[in-house]
Predict the 3D structure of the following.
Amino acid sequence: MLQFLGGALADITSLLVEAQRVFDFLESNENEVDTTSSISNGKDLDLAYEEGINIERLTFAYKDREPILHNFNLQIKNGEKVMLVGESGCGKSTILKVLMRFYDQSEGTIRICGHNIEEYSLKQLRSMITYVPQENYLFEGTVMENILFGNPYVDETMAKNAAKMAYAHDFISEMPDGYDTILSSGGRNLSGGQRQRIAIARAFMKNSPILLMDEPSSALDVESENKINLAMKKLMGNRIVIMVTHRTSSFHEFDRVFEL
């Protein structure tokens, strides 16, 4: 009976966590309306991409709170890899969420590929960006299905190569059914580090020009973090990477470290 109650409590706790994520998402998007883009998907956008990301005088405050960001400026050139560091609560993660337009800035301008982000439709903007949040969602399904999620144009061979770059292939291969092993909702039958590696493998497969990563290696040891960051640098090539982290052990794999 005690074992049953313990399992039930774990299930309830997991459901409450998932429900809170849904509520947070709905709150952040309560005023979100996807507008028609004034920007083409063709050659003009490719040429404009050379301009990278330009954030000017960004001010942001969560509802009924004091500004967490005030007159923040950051320019990132095409191909740059930038690490954002700073104390907890200084606004590092918020910058990524504003770039994704989960929230809109109170003041200031953000330009991506030479255009104000408000000129893009949400679908168009988010198709340009791969976002790895702090809490990575894994659904009930096989390991392979979780890696392939959101990547309709890739095959299993590409997924396994991505898993190798994320240093996930070895532990996946040791699971009872390998890539066909069923994961529980939220990946509860994996460790925190294993969940992060699968999420990173999923991100590595996307061919978007911008990669945003929010504490992607917080559950990894330093050696694994360094290896993954090195693989990320090679894989992303001339694409933009912005990583939020409180650990600077792999700073040498980045072009700049920006402290808030």
